[in-house]
Each structure stands twice: as C-alpha cells, then as structure tokens.
C-alpha cells in the first residue's frame, strides 16, 4: 500500500505489510528459512539466502523507511550493530564530531573499538553550533547527533546541525532512539542517516533487541547494504516480526508515555528532595523551544537530581521503587528507573560525567504507560 500521504498512526499500521501472496495472511508470516529454491540457476523470486534477504525483514524495512519519511531502511540484530555499520562507512584517519552527552554504548564502540582502527572522535556540547564548527577539521567526515540526549535530555537542533554538515560536506547521523519516529523525523530536518535501537520504543514491549538505519541517499544505502551483507549483523525473522508488531501501536503508546511523563515531571518539581528536573516539555527547559520546533511532543524520558547529591541518596530511592523496575534500557510499556553514574554511564570517567552536568544523584526514568496515579504513588513511597 502507498502510505506516503497518510498520517503517522495510519502509516504505522499499514506501511510495509501486504497480505501474504501465498495465503492472504494479513500479518507477514515469519519465513524461518535460510535459503530459497531457485527454478533455474540464478532464477529466483528476489530471495536467495536469508543473510541477504528475508520477507519479513523486507516488510519491516519498508515500514521503517515509510515512518521516518525515508527512501531506504536496513534492519540489524541490535542498535549497536546499526551503529557499527554506520561507522564502517569511514576510513582510517577520518574524524567524527559527536555530542558529549551520549548513549554509553555508543561512547564505548567509538573509543574502545573504532579508535583502534584509526577513526578519531571529538565530543562537544552541541547546543552551540560554534562548538561544532570549532571541532571540525579537514579530516572530519561525520557529525553524530543524539537528541534528546542521554541521560541529560538536552535537545540538539537538527536543522542547524544539517546546515553545518552541508557546509563542511559531512554525513549527519541522528540517533533517534529516544524520540522515536512518532515524535521526530530527522530526515525532514536535513539528516543523512537516522538510526534506532528498535529495542526501545519501536519494539516497545521489552522483548526484542533490534536496530535500524534509514536514509534517503541511494549511495549511502548501497554502501550500508553492502556492509550488512558482508559483515552479517542481520536480525532473525522472529525478531523482525516482534518489531513489526510493536510498530503498529507506537503512536498510541507514545501518546501515553508523553502524558505520563508530563504528569511525573510536573509532580517531581514540587518534591522538596528534588533538585533539578530534566524533561524537554517543561517551559524552563533550556532547549524547550527547539523541542517545540522539531518534536511532536516531548517524550517519556525524565531525569532528575537530588538536593542530597550523592550516589547513596539515589541508590536509596532506587532500591525502594516497586513499579519502577531498576533496570537498564527504556521505551517499554513498563516503567523503569536507573542510575546512569553507576549503570549505563559507568564506562564514562567521572570527571567527564560531572563536566556535562551528569551528577552523582541523577536518576533517569523511562516512564511507562501504566496508570500514572500508581506511578506517582510508587515514587512517593520511595522518597519517604
Ligand atoms: C539502547 C540504545 C542504543 C543501542 O541499542 P541496542 O539495541 O541496545 O544495541 C543506541 N542508542 C541509544 C540512544 C540507545 O538507547
């Protein structure tokens, strides 16, 4: 079905999927197969070997491209596999300018894997384009943006980054995991590549690890597909099925994530033990206006720090929540809480964490879609 002119919720349900030609099944079946029989040497139905093509992965890739307003998508066995594929577009000596407030796993693959292959990474605060400009050298090839950032939930102006990227002929990559395509479509603001950890909001039910890349560029797609087929970081058909199913309710889930996050951020502001509340929907958030420009709503992630700014104070609260499960990850229907300094961002040296404002007491919430009164009651008892 051509979904181009439909709105996002309709696209999420209909993009990519066609009734199965063999049976009419409305959901694309899971073809659990490695290979496809050819009627004569080289004569096949578009599928040869499942590292290269699989029908449900194909359906999911069409859906992903459509909901990000892109031309092409490639799906991977995880978000990190997607990041790995993007970095393999680079050559030794190339440089990347990235935000200094970044998913811990992205920082790790940059500094502990790709650095040893001669790729250089510069980390800057991307709230000011002058900082980005200052970090660009003749060897810079890529601008790596994550917005909202993790865990500080800063918002980076994608359109402004795109004009810097264009000026210096750089590939602009946006990790859109925290926003999801329901809230933000970076290609519309000039990004060259969008990537997702579909493990989070896209899958949405904490039951699948998966990654995705979307682009409008035929040239980049050709290279990414070559890298995928050569390196092999493909998702299994069962995982593609779970993500495709997750997509169909993304809009309904995201609306509720946003409503619940707003209620919790507003409530946290009134709590006497809380120091700062970080949620880009709050009018006092330093990047609120950029969020209003490039996002449809403000998302389900809320971070806050405590007046007693110690690891212990944060651990005391995190050990008492019952509905908010203490766990890494985010974006599922159930609420999670975490402590970046000792969990997701433990691999980033403390001095670097403090420099970007990531305090010892900072707690990150992935607000789920439970009834919000229960979530607030849970936090209340954890604080008392
Ligand atoms: C989780 C995450 C990743 C990595 O994805 P995996 O699916 O866990 O491999 C990358 N970027 C962000 C922002 C994430 O939250």
Mean pLDDT: 96
Overall domain count: 2
Residue share in helices? Answer: 25-40%
Secondary-structure element order, as H and E? Answer: HHEHEHEHEHEHEEHHHEHEHEEHEH
Number of strands: 12
The number of helical segments is 14
Q: Radius of gyration, Cα only, in angstroms?
A: 21 Å
What is the first-to-last residue Cα distance? Answer: 54 Å
List low-pLDDT spans: none
Q: Going across the biggest sheet, name each strand in turn.
A: 1-7-6-5-4-2-3
- The helix-and-strand class reads alpha/beta
> How does the major sheet shape up?
7 strands, mixed
CATH architecture of the largest domain: 3-Layer(aba) Sandwich
Question: Tell me, what is the CATH class of the largest domain?
Answer: Alpha Beta
- What ligand molecules are bound, each kind once? pyridoxal-5'-phosphate
CATH names the topology of the largest domain as: Aspartate Aminotransferase, domain 2
Strand content: 5-15%
Q: Rough shape?
A: globular
């Amino acid at each position: 079905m051509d979904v181009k002119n439909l709105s996002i919720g309709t696209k999420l349900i209909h993009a990519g999927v066609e009734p199965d030609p063999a049976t009419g099944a409305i959901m694309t079946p899971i073809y659990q197969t490695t290979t496809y029989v050819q009627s004569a040497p080289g004569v096949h139905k578009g599928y040869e070997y499942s590292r290269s093509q699989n029908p449900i992965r194909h359906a999911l890739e069409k859906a992903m491209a459509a909901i990000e307003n892109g031309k092409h998508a490639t799906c991977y066995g995880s978000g990190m596999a997607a990041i790995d594929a993007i970095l393999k577009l680079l050559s030794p000596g190339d440089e990347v300018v990235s935000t200094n407030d970044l998913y811990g796993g992205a920082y790790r693959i940059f500094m502990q894997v790709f650095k040893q292959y001669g790729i250089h990474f510069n980390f800057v605060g991307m709230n000011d384009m002058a900082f980005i400009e200052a970090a660009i050298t003749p060897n810079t090839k890529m601008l790596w943006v994550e917005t909202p950032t993790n865990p500080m939930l800063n918002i980076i102006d994608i359109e402004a980054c795109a004009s810097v990227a264009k000026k210096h002929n750089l590939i602009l990559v946006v990790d859109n995991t925290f926003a999801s395509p329901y809230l933000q479509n970076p290609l519309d603001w000039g990004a060259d590549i969008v990537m997702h950890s579909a493990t989070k909001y896209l899958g949405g039910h904490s039951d699948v690890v998966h990654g995705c890349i979307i682009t409008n560029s035929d040239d980049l797609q050709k290279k990414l597909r070559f890298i995928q087929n050569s390196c092999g970081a493909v998702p299994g058909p069962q995982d593609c099925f779970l993500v495709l199913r997750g997509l169909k309710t993304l809009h309904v889930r995201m609306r509720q994530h946003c409503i619940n996050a707003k209620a919790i951020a507003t409530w946290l502001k009134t709590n006497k033990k809380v120091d700062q509340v970080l949620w880009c929907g709050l009018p006092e958030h330093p990047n609120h206006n950029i969020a209003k420009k490039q996002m449809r709503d403000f998302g389900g992630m809320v971070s806050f720090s405590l007046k007693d700014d110690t690891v212990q104070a944060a651990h005391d609260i995190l050990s008492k929540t019952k509905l908010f499960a203490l766990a890494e990850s985010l974006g599922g229907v159930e609420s999670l809480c975490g402590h970046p300094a000792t969990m997701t961002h433990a691999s980033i040296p403390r001095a670097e964490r403090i420099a970007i404002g990531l305090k010892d007491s900072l707690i990150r919430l992935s607000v789920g879609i439970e009834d919000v009164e229960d979530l607030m009651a849970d936090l209340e008892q954890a604080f008392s």
